[in-house]
TrEMBL record:
This is UDP-N-acetylmuramyl pentapeptide phosphotransferase. Keywords: Membrane, Transferase, Transmembrane, Transmembrane helix. It comes from Microbacterium testaceum. The chain crosses the membrane at residues 45-66. GO terms for molecular function: transferase activity.
């Protein structure tokens, strides 16, 4: 069984070239409803907590209009 030659002067393989030139999918300009923030900026976790509480309250209040509940 022969091993692959390790020629250092050979060009990069296709997979290595694609990974090297890949862009971050979060920074694609064609994605709708995505805010492009500065590099390294993260959203506070409290926004996610508040969104969960708000959506939960909205669901509970809407379900209170469903007849047959306790």
């Amino acid at each position: 069984m022969a091993t692959a030659p390790t020629n250092q002067t050979a060009p990069q393989t296709g997979a290595q070239a694609v990974i090297a030139s890949a862009i971050d999918p979060a920074r694609r300009p064609d994605v709708l409803l995505r805010v492009r923030r500065a590099e390294g900026h993260e959203v506070s976790a409290w926004w996610m907590v508040g969104a969960f509480v708000g959506v939960s309250a909205a669901v509970v209040s809407l379900l209170s209009w469903v007849p047959g509940g306790a």
